[in-house]
Structure formats: structure tokens, C-alpha cells
Amino acid sequence: MKHLISLSMKYIRRQKLRTILTFMCITLSAFILATVCAYGSSIFSTLLNYTKDEDGSYEAEISSWIDHADDPQKARETIKGHPVVEDYYCYDMEMLFQKNEREVSFFEISDGKTSYRIKNAGLTSSEGNIELRSIYDDRSVAQYANNKGIYVSNVFKDMGYKEGDTVTVTLRPALGRYDENAQIIKDIRAELKEKYGTEYTVTDAEYEELSEELKSKASKSSISSILLNQKNIGTNDAPITDITYGEPVELTFKITGFLSQSNRSAEKYLDILNTGSDKLSLAEVYEKNPDIRYEDEHEVKIRTTDSMDYDDALKKLFGDLGFDVEKDYYDNDEYPHCPNTLLLALEWKSSDAVGKVIPTAVVPALIILLIAWFIARFVIDNAFEMAAQERSTHFAALRVMGASKLQVATVVLAEAVFYIFTAIPLGIISAILICRSSMNSFRRIGFPMFEFSAKPLFIGIAIFLSVIAVLISAYTSAMWVARKLSPAEALNFGKPRSKKKKLKKSKSKLDLNSKKFLRRYTRKNIGAAKSRFIVATITMGLGVLMFTFSALIALNSYKEMKKDMNQENIQDFWILGYYSNDPKNALNEVNKSFGDKEIFNDVHIEAYYQLTFKCPEDVDPLLKTGTSIQGDKETRSAFVHTVDRKDYEKAGLEKLIGMSYDEFASSNVIFRNTYDQAKTGDSFTAPEKETYIEFYSTDTKKKFIGAVRSQFSSGGFIIPLESAAEFNMPMDITLTTNREHYEEAEKIFSDFTTNNTVEYFQNSYMVGTGLTSFIKAIAKITLTFLVSIWLVGILSMINSVNTSVLNRSRELMMLRSVGMTRNQLRKSVLMETMMFSAVAAIVGTILGVLIYIPVFGRSVEKQIGTIVTVILLSILLNIIIAILSAIPATKTLEKIDSIAQAVNR
User: Fold this and answer.
1) What does the alpha-carbon distance between residue 581 and residue 264 come to, in Å, rounded to a whole number?
2) Rounded to an integer, what distance in angstroms lies between the CA atom of residue 137 and that of residue 53?
3) Phi then psi dihedrals of residue 203, to 5 deg
4) Would you say residue 66 has pLDDT above 60?
5) Distances from the Cα of 564 to the Cαs of 262, 554, 647, in angstroms?
6) How far apart (Å, rounded) are the C-alpha atoms in residues 778 and 784?
7) What does the DSSP 8-state code read for residue 296?
């Protein structure tokens, strides 16, 4: 055995070119398999991270079980301490509303010293592990989850309380009517009488006695809406008399902090967020006062223990909650439990979840892995076959001299063991390192959920498949070289004797100077090694196919993305509806937070809101255009937009209006803009007479200077950004950052949205600046995989051509002896590689285009140029590859040429 292993190592050392080619083929094959498995493992972990982040880490939502329990509170306590429940999260939201529309209805909150009238009351309770919830659930809960306790609205701050105070208040519903003796009510009644012909509104009892015509007019407004929208007076400050109260309910709690809320509305609301263990509920208010409206929403999510099967754990919990498992567990209409299917499948905790995911995720992954294994198997088999055929004379001689079948096979198998412990580890390690680099690049460009993961199971599969491919290929080659040979076969390079063929009488076609001879000779050589030709063509053709398909998709996607990015101003961060606690200083607060030019390349701030204003009948017609009537002819509404310096100058408003942005910002003026999308021509029309606009609820009066048609994309009334504070308008902020400072930008953005009141915010870096980096990372992964597949095809081609030259060394020496030039021999080899490459290019390109067309068939006629470009690029690359692949064979030819010259001497 020692001598056989020594002989095997001797072959490896002496035949350096063959060893290098075989080593590279096995390394690349292992690399392909490990790449599929490593990226599969990383995608698995990344998908798990995204699932937990977006959907939550809960496994089942069992709110219906709690609702159907005889004692819901006891059922919750059972869940919290149940042995099959590893973790839980409970969310409750309660809301109180008044149903009476004819009277002034509200709730009163009082501590015995101070009382406040509020429109609605809400209580949100959160208990348990908040990580089980989705990021799309109530975001205010996550904002205060780290510090457990009770957070309340600013109405308590107005009552004189501060953080840490323990308060006891009573909450009760109340009904009343507006004090008709109050001067402001008298003024409103007079205005209504003048505008509508009646002083009553739909909320007054006298409304039913009005005529149909007056009813129609009276229904357009109400005392409460006029007080709130035009007078900026909420229920707490309104003159209300004849108040009747409902049954009070006492609430006692300790204030942990105050909720971030907008000061925009004059109306007061009671909001309580309970993230601690104290028990609070508004249900008692409804129980004592059934005339009010009570709405509640409950959510209970759990994770089951890993020590028990998921389905068995749920059944046990269901039974312990007092339900009949056999009868009711599978009744999804009455007792549904909503599973987090994707998470359960990724954690392999539910067979049902895994069964649902297999068709969409597991099967495609297995198909890709199987294709990769077949490619590796073909390439490695081809490499071992070439190596065995190249040494067929040696193996045949060993058999003739008496070596047993097992001994000869051991020589080949020993080589396989050598490659298993050298080439396969190199391929596996290279794939892991490249995968790690790629996945970490995703994290660096702003995708924190992307995670590199080389799970032992996945890497073990790659190693197993690589070793199996090598052993199978080595075994088949070992069986071939170990067969019993005759002396004649041994002298014929180990080739078996062929059957005698009848000779055909024909003229000799040996014309060494004929081009037809070279083509016939090349076809004959390829035909003599059909299996090698087919294997090399398939592996290289797969590379061409994937390159063609991927290139077409990439170019098409790039064009579409470039088109979209040109049409749309994509931003990295969005903050919509920002309300500052200090409206006059809101712009400075934004600039202070996002003013660092190194972190934020662009900060765009705008504000818009629909406002009502006085519009007398004799006002200039320009003012009425683009506005809508609200209630009466003298009250209209329109959107008011802000414009900043950049957009003002970009749209050419400076020339149209005749004043610079600084002059516009310092003047108390306003104009109406129409977006000239069709680009028919900018224009400015001044009013015929001096006109002022007086806005309700803001006490703001501005001079109307005219109507503009421009390239500024916002329509309606336009004011400078600095004037937004006068209207107490919410601001929309869009931000653009860069790859190098994304983490800093994301932290500033997160802090701002956490510490301020905003209606909506979104991190869209992935479809903004991060998109380019994301595409580069994807291209890097795809290119690595495609190049590796293409390389194994090239190596198979080099193997086939070089082995063909070696097997025909006597034939080639004979041709040199009878006059074939060295250049003609080179042309023959080059033509052979070109034949390999041409077939692979044609088949791979055609299949790639045919697969691509059904996917993007709707606009193929517009992509002819792209398809032709990719086809030409593929052909060019294959020509280059064919030339490079012929180099090792031409070096082998030089050795044969030297032998032929020696024979001629």
C-alpha cells in the first residue's frame, strides 16, 4: 500500500499541468457548492432577522382564546405562568367616545382641585416582551417600552403635575349646552343668521322645526366646529352651561413621563400609555355609563418552549385554558390561533409551517443546489477521466506486469484522497470568505438585518456533496484503469481494440495545405472524444446561459431604475407631519438636528395644509380660482404650500414675481401657483385691485400679489418656508445621506423621530442612496457565481483539448514528419477550442435569451438593442476564452514538435 501511495504522489508531482488543472477543477467545484450553501445559510439567517424585525418574534397570536375564556383576566395569568409558554406579549387599547350629537358632550377629568373637559379618552396597555410584536404595530409603545411605567398626555402637565407624581383623578362623562348668554355664542349665532338665514345648526333641537331649505343650509356648520376651526376654542374653554354628569370612576397611578403630542389643536384629549405592571382600565366608566361608546382591542402573542413540539404545546395550553381540545382546537372560525408561519418554518418548529414554505423556498433552493452539484460532478468526473486517460499507458503496463485490479484502483483513489484534503478545503474556505465579505458589505451600506452565517449544517452539506462528487468520479476512473488489458491494448495507450472495419477505396484526402483538411481533422478529433466534448460544452454552456440571462436582467433593471431615479427624487429618510412644541422655532430645530453637511447631503423641508379664509363676494376673481366654497359663499378653503430658497430659484419665481427670495420671505405676501406640467410657458398675473387674505383660526392676514404658472410642482397658495410657523403647519422633512455616514445619519434620524411628535416616518435608504451599493453587492455575488461556473467550463475545455493532444501525440508526430507545419498544428488546436466555445456560446446564448423573453416579454421590441449587445458581448468573451484555452495545448504541441524533429534527424 505504501508503494502504491508513493506512486500516486509521484504522478501528482511529475504531471504538474494535469495536477494543476485537476486541482483547480475540484477547487472550483467545491467553491460553487460552498457558495450556494454559504449564501443559503446567510440568506436563511437574514430572512430570520427580517421576519423577527417586521413581523415580530412571536409564534402564535391567541387573542381569540382569551376572548372566549370564562375569565379573560385569569386566562392571561394562566398564559404568563404556563410551562409551555416561553415568552408572551399582551397589548390592549381602550377608547371612550360620546354618542350624543345634539348636546355638547365631553368627559371631565378632575383631581378635586382642577378640572378639564376632554373630547375622548384612550388607554393603551402593554405587558411582556415587546420584541414579540411587529414594528408596524403601535410605535408609541416601543418608544416608551424601555422605561416601564405610566405615560400620560399633556393635560396632566396643564393640571400642574410632573414626572414622579402619584395622582388620583376621577373621570366621568358629561352633557351640556352652549351658554347662549355668552358674547362669543351670540356673535356666532348672528354670523350664522346672516349667512344661512337661520341661527340654528344640526346639533340644535330647533333644527327639526326648520324648513327643508334651511335644514340644508344649517347642516353645513356647527357651533363646535366654528369655535374650534375659526376661533381656536376647544371644549375646555367653550362657554357651556346646564351640565349634567354621569357616574365617576376613580383612577390612581404614578406618572412616569409625558407623551409627545402636538400643540396644534385647541382640543384636549386624555391619553394614557401603561407599560408597567399597574392595572388600569376604562371599562368601568362604560359599565357605569352605558350611554357612552366604548371600543376595545386586545392582542396576545406567545412563544412556546423548545422542549415540546409546537402543536402539542398549543394543544396543552388550549386545554389548560378550559377548552375542549378534541372538539374546539381545530375550529378556526370560533377559536383561531394565527401562527407566524415564516418564523415557525425558519425555526423548524411546525411541520405545517415548513410544509407551506417548502414549495416557495426550499424546493427552488434544492434545485439550485442540485444543479450546482451536477455541474461539479461533471467537471470533476471529466478531470479524473482526462488524468486517467493521459496515464493510460502506465496503468496498462502495470496491469500487464501483474498488478491487481485493486492495486491499480488504489493509485487513482489515493489521488482522490489527496484532492479531498487539499482542493476541497481551499474551495470551501474561499467561498466562505467571499460570502462573508459580501454579506458584511450589505451591513456596511445600511442593511443591518443582513447577516453572514456559515451554519455547520449548510457547510457540512457542501463538504459532503464535494467529497461524494470526487469519490464517485475517482471510483469510475479507477474501475476504467483497473480493467484487464492485453499487451496490444497496453501499447495502444490503454485503448481497447476496435472492431475491424472494411476499408473503402477512395482517393487520398491528405492535403496538408488545405483548409478543408484542418476542418475535417478537427471534427474527427472532436468526434473521437464525444463524451469529453459534451461535458465541457454543457458546463461552459451553463456559464454562458447564466451570463446571458443575468446580463439581460441587469441591463434591463439598470435602465428601468435609471429612468425611475431620473423621474423621481428618491430620498433616504422621510419625516411626515412633524409638530414642534415651539412652532416659532420649528425650522431652527430641524436645521440644528440635520444641519451637518457631511452627514446629510440634502435636507428638504416643506409644509402644506388646507386652510379656510374669508373671501368676500367682491374679491378679485384671481383669488377664487382653484379654491372651494366652505359652507357659505364668503368662506373658502385652499391648500397653502411653502417654498424654500432652492425651489424658489430653481422654478424661476424670482423673475416671474419680481422679487428675490429674501424679499419674498420678509414681505407679508402670498401668491397662487399652478404647476405648468405641460411646459406651455411660465406666466404671472397680478390682481386688478389690492387684495388681502384673512385666514381663520390663525389670525393671519397676507397680501395677495397674483397668480403664477410655473415649474414649481406644488399648487395652491405659496408662502415662504419661514412663514410656516404663522399657520402652525406640520412640516414634512426629507433627507439624503451618503454611504460613509449612513450609521450616523440613521442615529440622528432615529433620535429625532423618538423625541419629537411626527405622524409618520420611514427609513427608505434601501431604495435611495443605498440602492446603488445594494446593487453593487448583488452584482458582486452574482458575478462571483457566474465566473466560477464559467471557469469550470473553461478548465474542462482546457482539459479536453490538452488530453486530446497528448492522446494523439504519435499521430501528430507523424503529421509533422510528413510535412505539416507547426503553425498548422496550432491552427488545428485553436479550431478545436473555437468549436467547443462556439457550440457553448450558441446554445447558452439562445437558451438565455429564450428564458429571458417570457419574463420580460411585454417590452421585448424595446430591448432588441440590449439583447444584441449581450449576444455580441457573449460571443466576444467566448472568442477570448477559446484563444486562452488553447495556450496549454500549444505548449504541449511544442514538446511533440521537438520529438518529431528528433525523429526526422
Assistant:
1) 9
2) 11
3) -85, -5
4) yes
5) 36, 15, 21
6) 10
7) E
Say if residues 605 and 596 touch (Cβ distance below 8 Å): no
d(CA 763, CA 781): 25
State which amino acid sits at residue 412. Answer: V
Q: What is the CA radius of gyration of the chain?
A: 41
Contact 891, 801 (CB under 8 A): no
pLDDT digits (tens, 9 = 90+) for 664-703: 999 889 999 988 877 778 889 888 888 888 887 666 888 9
Amino acid identity for residue 272 in this structure: I
Residue 490's contacts (CB-CB under 8 Å, 6 or more residues apart) are 393, 396, 397, 399, 400
pTM, two decimals, is 0.70
Q: Per the structure block, which three cell numbers stand in for 22?
A: 485537476
Q: C-alpha cell of 334?
A: 370560533
Q: What is the mean pLDDT of residues 261-273?
A: 71
Residue 153 has pLDDT above 60, yes or no: yes
CA triplet 500, 505, 508: central angle to 5 degrees?
Answer: 105
Q: Are 292 and 246 in contact (CB under 8 A)?
A: yes
Q: What gap in Å lies between CA 887 and CA 579, rounded to an integer? A: 71
Query: Contact at 8 Å (CB) between 227 and 233?
Result: yes
pLDDT, tens only, 580-633: 877 788 888 898 999 888 889 889 999 988 888 888 777 888 888 878 777 666
- Tell me the C-alpha to C-alpha distance, in Å, between residue 898 and each of 356, 759, 892, 895: 67, 84, 10, 5
Is 294 in contact with 95 (CB distance < 8 Å)? yes
Q: What are the DSSP calls for 306-375, one per residue?
A: TTS-HHHHHHHHHHHTT--HHHHTT-TTTS--EE-HHHHHHTT--HHHHHHHIIIIIHHHHHHHHHHHHH
Buried b (16+ CB within 10 A) or exposed e, 810-836: eebbebbeeebeeebbbbbbbbbbbbb
Residues 469 and 81: their CA atoms lie apart, in Å, by 52
* Sign of the torsion angle spanned by Cα atoms 326, 332, 335, 339: positive
Angstrom distance (rounded) from CA 25 to CA 793: 9
